[in-house]
C-alpha cells in the first residue's frame, strides 16, 4: 500500500501530488460497507464502486443493465464505511449520454458519498467531462477496454494495438485537457500504457495494462477468487488461493 496509508484522508489534489512524488496508488472495487471498511483500514488508497457490480453482484452477463439507482445504493453503502480512501463511482450505461444527464447522475452519486465519478471513453464524452468539471464534479476517465462498449467491441478484448495505440495516446491527453483528474487504462498493451503514464500530468490506474501505470485496480471478486459466474481475467492472481486460504 502507499505511504499515504498512515496520514490524512485522500483528496483529489493529493492524487496529483502522489504522481509528482512517484507514489504508486492502490485501488480496489467494493460494493458494500463490510468489504469497503476492510480495504480502507488496510491502506487501500482508492475505492471504486464499479458498474462491474452488474456482473459480480447482480449476476448479469455485462455491465449494461446497471442503473443509476443501483450505483447510488451501493455508493452510499460503501461511503458509510470509509475514513481515508477516496471514493470513485461509475456513471452507469448511458447515464453520461448527454452533459445534462451526466450532471443529474453525478450529483446523485456525490450526494451518496462519492468524491469522483468515472466516465468511459473519449470522443463526445470530452464535452461531458468538461461540463462536469466546470460544475465542480471531479472526473476519472476510463480508456482502453471500456466494458460499456462490449457490444461494439464484440467482447472483452485488448485495445490499443498498432495504430489504435496512437489514438489512445491522443484520447488520454484529450480527457486530461478536458479536466479529468485520473485515468484508468484497461487491457492496454504494456508499452502504450507506460508511455501514456509518462506523458500525462495526472495519475493512471491500470487494470491489465502492465506495471508502468501509476497505480493498479482490481475487481475484488477476481482478486479473492470468488466465483461470480464470469471468467476471471488472465492477468489476475487468486490471492486467497496463493495465500493458502
UniProtKB/TrEMBL annotation:
<dbReference type="GO" id="GO:0005737">
    <property type="term" value="C:cytoplasm"/>
</dbReference>
<feature type="binding site">
    <location>
        <position position="120"/>
    </location>
    <ligand>
        <name>Mg(2+)</name>
    </ligand>
</feature>
<comment type="similarity">
    <text>Belongs to the PanB family.</text>
</comment>
<keyword id="KW-0489">Methyltransferase</keyword>
<keyword id="KW-0566">Pantothenate biosynthesis</keyword>
<protein>
    <recommendedName>
        <fullName>3-methyl-2-oxobutanoate hydroxymethyltransferase</fullName>
        <ecNumber>2.1.2.11</ecNumber>
    </recommendedName>
</protein>
<dbReference type="GO" id="GO:0000287">
    <property type="term" value="F:magnesium ion binding"/>
</dbReference>
<dbReference type="GO" id="GO:0032259">
    <property type="term" value="P:methylation"/>
</dbReference>
<comment type="function">
    <text>Catalyzes the reversible reaction in which hydroxymethyl group from 5,10-methylenetetrahydrofolate is transferred onto alpha-ketoisovalerate to form ketopantoate.</text>
</comment>
<dbReference type="Pfam" id="PF02548">
    <property type="entry name" value="Pantoate_transf"/>
</dbReference>
<dbReference type="InterPro" id="IPR003700">
    <property type="entry name" value="Pantoate_hydroxy_MeTrfase"/>
</dbReference>
<dbReference type="GO" id="GO:0015940">
    <property type="term" value="P:pantothenate biosynthetic process"/>
</dbReference>
<feature type="binding site">
    <location>
        <position position="90"/>
    </location>
    <ligand>
        <name>3-methyl-2-oxobutanoate</name>
    </ligand>
</feature>
<feature type="binding site">
    <location>
        <begin position="51"/>
        <end position="52"/>
    </location>
    <ligand>
        <name>3-methyl-2-oxobutanoate</name>
    </ligand>
</feature>
<comment type="subunit">
    <text>Homodecamer; pentamer of dimers.</text>
</comment>
<feature type="active site" description="Proton acceptor">
    <location>
        <position position="186"/>
    </location>
</feature>
<dbReference type="GO" id="GO:0008168">
    <property type="term" value="F:methyltransferase activity"/>
</dbReference>
<feature type="binding site">
    <location>
        <position position="90"/>
    </location>
    <ligand>
        <name>Mg(2+)</name>
    </ligand>
</feature>
<dbReference type="InterPro" id="IPR015813">
    <property type="entry name" value="Pyrv/PenolPyrv_kinase-like_dom"/>
</dbReference>
<keyword id="KW-0808">Transferase</keyword>
<comment type="pathway">
    <text>Cofactor biosynthesis; (R)-pantothenate biosynthesis; (R)-pantoate from 3-methyl-2-oxobutanoate: step 1/2.</text>
</comment>
<keyword id="KW-0460">Magnesium</keyword>
<dbReference type="GO" id="GO:0003864">
    <property type="term" value="F:3-methyl-2-oxobutanoate hydroxymethyltransferase activity"/>
</dbReference>
<feature type="binding site">
    <location>
        <position position="51"/>
    </location>
    <ligand>
        <name>Mg(2+)</name>
    </ligand>
</feature>
<keyword id="KW-0479">Metal-binding</keyword>
<dbReference type="InterPro" id="IPR040442">
    <property type="entry name" value="Pyrv_kinase-like_dom_sf"/>
</dbReference>
<feature type="binding site">
    <location>
        <position position="118"/>
    </location>
    <ligand>
        <name>3-methyl-2-oxobutanoate</name>
    </ligand>
</feature>
Amino acid at each position: 500500500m502507499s505511504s499515504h496509508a498512515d496520514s490524512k484522508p485522500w483528496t483529489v489534489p493529493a492524487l496529483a501530488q502522489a504522481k509528482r512524488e512517484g507514489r504508486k496508488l492502490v485501488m480496489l472495487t467494493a460494493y458494500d460497507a463490510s468489504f469497503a471498511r476492510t480495504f480502507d483500514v488496510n491502506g487501500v488508497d482508492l475505492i471504486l464502486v464499479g458498474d462491474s457490480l452488474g456482473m459480480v453482484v447482480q449476476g448479469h452477463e455485462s455491465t449494461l443493465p446497471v442503473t443509476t439507482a443501483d450505483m447510488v445504493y451501493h455508493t452510499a453503502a460503501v461511503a458509510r464505511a470509509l475514513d481515508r480512501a477516496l471514493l470513485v463511482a461509475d456513471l452507469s450505461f448511458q447515464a453520461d449520454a448527454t452533459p445534462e444527464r451526466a450532471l443529474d447522475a453525478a450529483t446523485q452519486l456525490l450526494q451518496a458519498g462519492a468524491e469522483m465519478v468515472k466516465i468511459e471513453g473519449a470522443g463526445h464524452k470530452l464535452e461531458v467531462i468538461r461540463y462536469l468539471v466546470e460544475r465542480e464534479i471531479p472526473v476519472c476517465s476510463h480508456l482502453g477496454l471500456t466494458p460499456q462498449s462490449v457490444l461494439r467491441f464484440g467482447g472483452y478484448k485488448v485495445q490499443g494495438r498498432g495504430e489504435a495505440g496512437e489514438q489512445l495516446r491522443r484520447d488520454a491527453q484529450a480527457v486530461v485537457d478536458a479536466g479529468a483528474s485520473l485515468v484508468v487504462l484497461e487491457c492496454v498493451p504494456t508499452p502504450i500504457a507506460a508511455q501514456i503514464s509518462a506523458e500525462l500530468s495526472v495519475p493512471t490506474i491500470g487494470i491489465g495494462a502492465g506495471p508502468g501505470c501509476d497505480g493498479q485496480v482490481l475487481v475484488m471478486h477476481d482478486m479473492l477468487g470468488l466465483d461470480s459466474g464470469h471468467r476471471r481475467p488472465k492477468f489476475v492472481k487468486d490471492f486467497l488461493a496463493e495465500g493458502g486460504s
